[in-house]
Amino acid sequence: MSAHEVVALTAPAALAQVRLLVVGDVMLDRYWFGDVSRISPEAPVPIVRIEKREERLGGAANVARNAAALGAKTSLLGVVGDDEAGSQVERLLEGGGIHSYLQRDAAISTIIKLRVIGRQQQMLRIDFEDAPSDEVLRDKLAQFNALLPHYDVVILSDYAKGSLVNVAEMIKAARAAGKIVMVDPKGDDFSRYAGASVLTPNKSELRRVVGNWSTEEQLTERAQQMRAQLGLDALLLTRSEEGMSLYTADAVLHMPTDAREVFDVSGAGDTVIATMAAMLGAGMDLGDAVRTANRAGGIVVGKLGTATVTRDELFPQ
Protein backbone atom coordinates (compact mmCIF):
# COMPACT_ATOMS: atom_id res chain seq x y z
CA MET A 1 0.00 0.00 0.00
CA SER A 2 1.40 3.40 -1.02
CA ALA A 3 1.91 6.32 1.35
CA HIS A 4 -0.90 8.16 -0.42
CA GLU A 5 -3.30 5.24 0.06
CA VAL A 6 -2.45 5.14 3.77
CA VAL A 7 -3.18 8.88 4.01
CA ALA A 8 -6.49 8.43 2.18
CA LEU A 9 -7.58 5.71 4.60
CA THR A 10 -6.51 7.38 7.84
CA ALA A 11 -7.31 11.04 7.16
CA PRO A 12 -11.14 10.84 7.22
CA ALA A 13 -11.15 9.38 10.74
CA ALA A 14 -8.46 11.80 11.91
CA LEU A 15 -10.35 14.76 10.42
CA ALA A 16 -13.18 14.27 12.92
CA GLN A 17 -10.73 15.03 15.72
CA VAL A 18 -9.39 18.26 14.21
CA ARG A 19 -10.40 21.42 16.11
CA LEU A 20 -10.23 24.31 13.68
CA LEU A 21 -10.91 28.02 14.31
CA VAL A 22 -11.56 30.31 11.34
CA VAL A 23 -11.22 34.07 11.91
CA GLY A 24 -11.81 36.82 9.37
CA ASP A 25 -14.18 38.74 7.14
CA VAL A 26 -17.60 37.11 7.20
CA MET A 27 -19.91 37.57 4.23
CA LEU A 28 -23.24 36.42 2.83
CA ASP A 29 -23.20 35.39 -0.83
CA ARG A 30 -26.54 35.91 -2.56
CA TYR A 31 -27.26 34.44 -5.99
CA TRP A 32 -30.16 35.55 -8.17
CA PHE A 33 -30.71 33.23 -11.14
CA GLY A 34 -32.85 34.22 -14.07
CA ASP A 35 -33.64 34.13 -17.76
CA VAL A 36 -32.30 36.67 -20.25
CA SER A 37 -34.47 37.17 -23.31
CA ARG A 38 -34.24 40.85 -24.25
CA ILE A 39 -32.32 44.11 -23.93
CA SER A 40 -33.70 46.95 -21.81
CA PRO A 41 -35.31 49.84 -23.74
CA GLU A 42 -33.87 52.20 -21.10
CA ALA A 43 -30.20 51.35 -21.61
CA PRO A 44 -28.11 48.83 -23.61
CA VAL A 45 -28.17 46.22 -20.85
CA PRO A 46 -29.85 42.81 -20.63
CA ILE A 47 -33.02 42.31 -18.61
CA VAL A 48 -32.79 39.37 -16.21
CA ARG A 49 -36.10 37.94 -15.03
CA ILE A 50 -35.28 36.40 -11.66
CA GLU A 51 -36.60 32.88 -11.22
CA LYS A 52 -34.58 31.47 -8.30
CA ARG A 53 -32.61 32.80 -5.33
CA GLU A 54 -29.90 31.13 -3.24
CA GLU A 55 -27.87 32.22 -0.22
CA ARG A 56 -24.51 30.78 0.79
CA LEU A 57 -21.77 31.53 3.29
CA GLY A 58 -19.03 33.74 1.88
CA GLY A 59 -15.57 35.00 2.80
CA ALA A 60 -14.23 33.53 6.05
CA ALA A 61 -17.59 31.81 6.52
CA ASN A 62 -17.04 29.89 3.28
CA VAL A 63 -13.63 28.78 4.56
CA ALA A 64 -15.36 27.44 7.68
CA ARG A 65 -18.01 25.78 5.52
CA ASN A 66 -15.31 23.98 3.54
CA ALA A 67 -13.53 22.74 6.67
CA ALA A 68 -16.80 21.53 8.20
CA ALA A 69 -17.73 19.72 4.97
CA LEU A 70 -14.55 17.66 5.40
CA GLY A 71 -15.62 16.66 8.91
CA ALA A 72 -13.38 18.94 11.00
CA LYS A 73 -14.82 20.42 14.20
CA THR A 74 -15.05 23.98 12.94
CA SER A 75 -15.79 27.30 14.63
CA LEU A 76 -16.03 30.79 13.15
CA LEU A 77 -15.09 34.07 14.83
CA GLY A 78 -16.11 37.23 13.00
CA VAL A 79 -18.40 40.25 12.83
CA VAL A 80 -21.77 40.73 11.14
CA GLY A 81 -24.37 43.44 11.32
CA ASP A 82 -27.37 43.32 13.62
CA ASP A 83 -29.62 42.75 10.62
CA GLU A 84 -31.52 40.18 8.58
CA ALA A 85 -28.41 39.15 6.62
CA GLY A 86 -26.50 38.56 9.85
CA SER A 87 -29.30 36.32 11.10
CA GLN A 88 -29.21 34.40 7.83
CA VAL A 89 -25.44 33.85 8.23
CA GLU A 90 -26.11 32.44 11.71
CA ARG A 91 -28.76 30.07 10.31
CA LEU A 92 -26.47 28.86 7.54
CA LEU A 93 -23.64 28.26 10.02
CA GLU A 94 -25.94 26.20 12.20
CA GLY A 95 -27.12 24.21 9.17
CA GLY A 96 -23.52 23.52 8.21
CA GLY A 97 -22.56 22.25 11.66
CA ILE A 98 -20.27 25.24 12.31
CA HIS A 99 -20.01 26.68 15.81
CA SER A 100 -20.64 30.42 15.65
CA TYR A 101 -18.77 33.03 17.66
CA LEU A 102 -20.10 35.86 15.53
CA GLN A 103 -20.34 39.28 17.10
CA ARG A 104 -23.20 41.57 16.08
CA ASP A 105 -22.22 45.17 15.32
CA ALA A 106 -25.28 47.44 15.28
CA ALA A 107 -23.24 50.20 13.62
CA ILE A 108 -22.70 48.27 10.37
CA SER A 109 -24.52 46.13 7.82
CA THR A 110 -23.48 42.54 7.13
CA ILE A 111 -21.21 42.25 4.09
CA ILE A 112 -23.22 40.97 1.13
CA LYS A 113 -22.05 39.98 -2.34
CA LEU A 114 -25.05 39.80 -4.65
CA ARG A 115 -24.46 37.98 -7.96
CA VAL A 116 -26.98 38.10 -10.80
CA ILE A 117 -26.68 35.06 -13.06
CA GLY A 118 -28.38 34.62 -16.42
CA ARG A 119 -28.05 31.46 -18.48
CA GLN A 120 -25.41 30.13 -16.07
CA GLN A 121 -23.19 33.19 -16.62
CA GLN A 122 -22.50 35.81 -13.95
CA MET A 123 -23.72 39.11 -15.37
CA LEU A 124 -23.36 41.46 -12.41
CA ARG A 125 -22.03 41.55 -8.85
CA ILE A 126 -23.14 44.13 -6.31
CA ASP A 127 -21.20 44.49 -3.03
CA PHE A 128 -22.54 45.91 0.23
CA GLU A 129 -19.86 46.37 2.89
CA ASP A 130 -18.93 48.34 6.04
CA ALA A 131 -15.86 48.07 8.30
CA PRO A 132 -16.53 46.89 11.89
CA SER A 133 -16.36 49.45 14.71
CA ASP A 134 -13.25 49.72 16.93
CA GLU A 135 -15.09 48.56 20.04
CA VAL A 136 -16.29 45.34 18.41
CA LEU A 137 -12.79 44.64 17.05
CA ARG A 138 -11.31 44.98 20.57
CA ASP A 139 -13.90 42.53 21.88
CA LYS A 140 -13.09 40.16 19.02
CA LEU A 141 -9.37 40.12 19.88
CA ALA A 142 -10.12 39.37 23.53
CA GLN A 143 -12.46 36.56 22.50
CA PHE A 144 -9.81 35.15 20.14
CA ASN A 145 -7.30 34.94 22.96
CA ALA A 146 -9.87 33.20 25.18
CA LEU A 147 -10.78 30.65 22.48
CA LEU A 148 -7.22 29.85 21.38
CA PRO A 149 -6.47 27.04 23.90
CA HIS A 150 -9.41 25.00 22.59
CA TYR A 151 -8.20 24.71 18.95
CA ASP A 152 -5.38 22.97 17.06
CA VAL A 153 -5.37 24.99 13.85
CA VAL A 154 -6.20 28.65 13.16
CA ILE A 155 -7.12 30.01 9.73
CA LEU A 156 -6.99 33.80 9.30
CA SER A 157 -9.04 34.67 6.22
CA ASP A 158 -8.29 38.25 5.20
CA TYR A 159 -10.51 39.85 2.56
CA ALA A 160 -9.37 43.40 3.49
CA LYS A 161 -12.82 44.31 4.84
CA GLY A 162 -11.57 45.44 8.25
CA SER A 163 -12.12 42.42 10.48
CA LEU A 164 -8.43 41.49 10.78
CA VAL A 165 -6.78 44.75 11.80
CA ASN A 166 -5.34 42.84 14.79
CA VAL A 167 -3.95 40.01 12.66
CA ALA A 168 -0.33 40.48 13.82
CA GLU A 169 -1.34 40.08 17.48
CA MET A 170 -3.46 37.03 16.62
CA ILE A 171 -0.57 35.31 14.80
CA LYS A 172 1.84 36.03 17.63
CA ALA A 173 -0.55 34.68 20.28
CA ALA A 174 -1.45 31.56 18.27
CA ARG A 175 2.16 30.68 17.47
CA ALA A 176 3.21 31.22 21.08
CA ALA A 177 0.48 28.72 22.01
CA GLY A 178 1.93 26.16 19.56
CA LYS A 179 -0.91 26.33 17.01
CA ILE A 180 -0.73 25.86 13.25
CA VAL A 181 -1.57 29.26 11.73
CA MET A 182 -2.70 29.45 8.09
CA VAL A 183 -3.22 32.88 6.49
CA ASP A 184 -5.00 33.84 3.27
CA PRO A 185 -3.51 37.33 2.74
CA LYS A 186 -4.65 40.56 1.08
CA GLY A 187 -3.10 43.93 0.33
CA ASP A 188 0.39 45.12 -0.60
CA ASP A 189 2.03 44.71 2.82
CA PHE A 190 2.49 41.15 4.05
CA SER A 191 4.67 42.16 7.03
CA ARG A 192 1.65 41.95 9.34
CA TYR A 193 1.50 38.20 8.62
CA ALA A 194 5.05 37.59 9.89
CA GLY A 195 5.47 34.42 11.92
CA ALA A 196 2.53 32.49 10.43
CA SER A 197 2.95 28.81 9.64
CA VAL A 198 1.78 29.05 6.03
CA LEU A 199 0.79 31.96 3.80
CA THR A 200 -1.41 31.18 0.75
CA PRO A 201 -1.38 34.09 -1.75
CA ASN A 202 -2.48 33.79 -5.36
CA LYS A 203 -0.39 35.13 -8.23
CA SER A 204 -1.87 38.63 -8.31
CA GLU A 205 -1.58 38.99 -4.52
CA LEU A 206 2.06 37.91 -4.52
CA ARG A 207 2.86 40.14 -7.51
CA ARG A 208 1.59 43.20 -5.63
CA VAL A 209 4.14 42.53 -2.88
CA VAL A 210 7.27 41.21 -4.65
CA GLY A 211 6.80 42.72 -8.11
CA ASN A 212 6.58 40.98 -11.47
CA TRP A 213 8.73 38.05 -12.50
CA SER A 214 9.81 36.88 -15.93
CA THR A 215 11.22 33.42 -15.14
CA GLU A 216 10.49 30.57 -12.76
CA GLU A 217 13.91 31.09 -11.17
CA GLN A 218 13.12 34.73 -10.47
CA LEU A 219 9.77 33.78 -8.92
CA THR A 220 11.42 31.18 -6.70
CA GLU A 221 14.06 33.64 -5.56
CA ARG A 222 11.49 36.30 -4.64
CA ALA A 223 9.09 33.85 -2.99
CA GLN A 224 11.86 32.29 -0.90
CA GLN A 225 13.21 35.68 0.08
CA MET A 226 9.80 36.79 1.31
CA ARG A 227 9.20 33.49 3.11
CA ALA A 228 12.49 33.88 4.99
CA GLN A 229 11.92 37.57 5.78
CA LEU A 230 8.48 36.85 7.25
CA GLY A 231 9.66 33.80 9.20
CA LEU A 232 7.12 31.48 7.55
CA ASP A 233 7.35 27.70 7.67
CA ALA A 234 6.04 27.66 4.10
CA LEU A 235 4.54 29.78 1.35
CA LEU A 236 1.91 28.20 -0.90
CA LEU A 237 1.38 30.06 -4.17
CA THR A 238 -1.90 29.23 -5.94
CA ARG A 239 -1.43 29.74 -9.68
CA SER A 240 -4.83 29.07 -11.34
CA GLU A 241 -4.27 27.00 -14.49
CA GLU A 242 -0.59 26.58 -13.57
CA GLY A 243 -1.44 24.67 -10.37
CA MET A 244 0.37 25.39 -7.09
CA SER A 245 3.91 25.92 -5.84
CA LEU A 246 5.02 25.23 -2.27
CA TYR A 247 8.15 27.01 -1.01
CA THR A 248 9.87 25.81 2.16
CA ALA A 249 13.38 26.20 3.55
CA ASP A 250 14.28 22.76 2.21
CA ALA A 251 12.57 22.50 -1.16
CA VAL A 252 10.24 23.82 -3.83
CA LEU A 253 7.31 21.60 -4.82
CA HIS A 254 5.34 22.33 -8.02
CA MET A 255 1.97 20.68 -8.65
CA PRO A 256 0.03 20.98 -11.93
CA THR A 257 -3.63 21.89 -11.72
CA ASP A 258 -5.96 19.01 -10.88
CA ALA A 259 -9.02 20.60 -12.50
CA ARG A 260 -10.78 18.53 -15.14
CA GLU A 261 -13.24 21.30 -15.99
CA VAL A 262 -13.20 24.92 -14.83
CA PHE A 263 -16.72 26.26 -14.35
CA ASP A 264 -16.32 28.89 -11.61
CA VAL A 265 -13.16 29.83 -9.69
CA SER A 266 -14.92 31.90 -7.00
CA GLY A 267 -14.15 30.51 -3.55
CA ALA A 268 -11.47 28.09 -4.80
CA GLY A 269 -8.86 29.71 -2.55
CA ASP A 270 -11.17 29.16 0.43
CA THR A 271 -11.36 25.46 -0.40
CA VAL A 272 -7.58 25.16 -0.75
CA ILE A 273 -6.69 26.79 2.59
CA ALA A 274 -9.49 24.98 4.47
CA THR A 275 -8.46 21.59 3.07
CA MET A 276 -4.77 22.14 3.74
CA ALA A 277 -5.43 23.32 7.31
CA ALA A 278 -7.71 20.36 8.04
CA MET A 279 -5.18 17.88 6.65
CA LEU A 280 -2.29 19.37 8.64
CA GLY A 281 -4.48 19.21 11.74
CA ALA A 282 -5.18 15.54 10.97
CA GLY A 283 -1.46 14.80 10.97
CA MET A 284 -0.61 14.81 7.25
CA ASP A 285 2.84 16.05 6.30
CA LEU A 286 3.06 19.33 4.42
CA GLY A 287 3.57 17.82 0.97
CA ASP A 288 0.59 15.45 1.21
CA ALA A 289 -1.59 18.23 2.67
CA VAL A 290 -0.80 20.45 -0.32
CA ARG A 291 -1.45 17.64 -2.82
CA THR A 292 -4.82 16.97 -1.18
CA ALA A 293 -5.68 20.69 -1.20
CA ASN A 294 -4.73 20.86 -4.89
CA ARG A 295 -7.11 17.99 -5.61
CA ALA A 296 -9.88 19.74 -3.63
CA GLY A 297 -9.34 22.94 -5.58
CA GLY A 298 -9.60 21.01 -8.83
CA ILE A 299 -12.95 19.59 -7.77
CA VAL A 300 -14.50 22.83 -6.53
CA VAL A 301 -13.79 24.90 -9.67
CA GLY A 302 -16.09 22.50 -11.51
CA LYS A 303 -19.02 23.74 -9.41
CA LEU A 304 -21.01 26.98 -9.57
CA GLY A 305 -20.32 29.73 -7.04
CA THR A 306 -18.83 29.38 -3.57
CA ALA A 307 -19.00 25.61 -3.22
CA THR A 308 -17.44 22.91 -1.04
CA VAL A 309 -15.77 19.55 -1.46
CA THR A 310 -17.02 16.64 0.60
CA ARG A 311 -14.88 14.01 2.30
CA ASP A 312 -16.29 11.33 -0.04
CA GLU A 313 -15.31 13.37 -3.12
CA LEU A 314 -11.79 13.87 -1.79
CA PHE A 315 -11.34 10.30 -0.54
CA PRO A 316 -13.50 8.09 -2.80
CA GLN A 317 -13.76 4.48 -1.64
UniProtKB/TrEMBL annotation:
On whether Membrane is a keyword of this UniProt record, the answer is: no
Please verify whether the record's keywords include Kinase: yes
InterPro entries referenced in this protein's UniProt entry, alphabetically = PfkB_dom, RfaE_dom_I, Ribokinase-like
Q: Which keywords does this Swiss-Prot/TrEMBL entry list? A: Kinase, Transferase
GO MF terms, alphabetically ordered: heptose 7-phosphate kinase activity; heptose-1-phosphate adenylyltransferase activity; phosphotransferase activity, alcohol group as acceptor
Q: One GO cellular component from the entry?
A: cytosol
Tell me where in this chain the Carbohydrate kinase PfkB domain is found. 20-308
Q: Which NCBIfam families match?
A: rfaE_dom_I
The entry's protein name is D-glycero-beta-D-manno-heptose-7-phosphate kinase
Q: What is the lineage of its organism?
A: Bacteria, Pseudomonadati, Pseudomonadota, Betaproteobacteria, Burkholderiales
